[in-house]
Design brief:
29% of the residues lie in helices and 26% in strands. The chain has two helices and five strands; from the N terminus they run βαββββα. The strands form two sheets. Strands 2-3-4 form a three-stranded antiparallel sheet, with helices on one face. It is globular and about 30 Å long.
């Protein structure tokens, strides 16, 4: 028969505050522009835009992905 598998997400070990993430982006030369549901980070030397979600805390995976896309990690 079928076996039921339950996958549990681990508790977040690290949640970065949005203000700290924006501070790191600004130090890297990014300009954060206010948007609707997400803020947008723009760099004059790069041709793409990074979206930054609104909210007080950003989980570990999202924060690392944003910094990796920005070239700061």
């Amino acid at each position: 028969m079928f076996t039921r598998v339950i996958i549990r997400c681990p508790k977040w070990k690290y949640a970065e505050k949005r203000t700290e993430l924006i501070r790191k982006l600004r130090k890297g030369g990014w300009v954060v522009v206010a948007g609707g549901k997400h803020g947008k980070a723009v760099h004059l030397d790069k041709t793409y835009i990074i979206t930054v979600p609104h909210g007080s805390n950003i989980d570990e995976w999202t924060a690392k992905a944003i910094l990796k896309d920005a070239g700061l990690l």
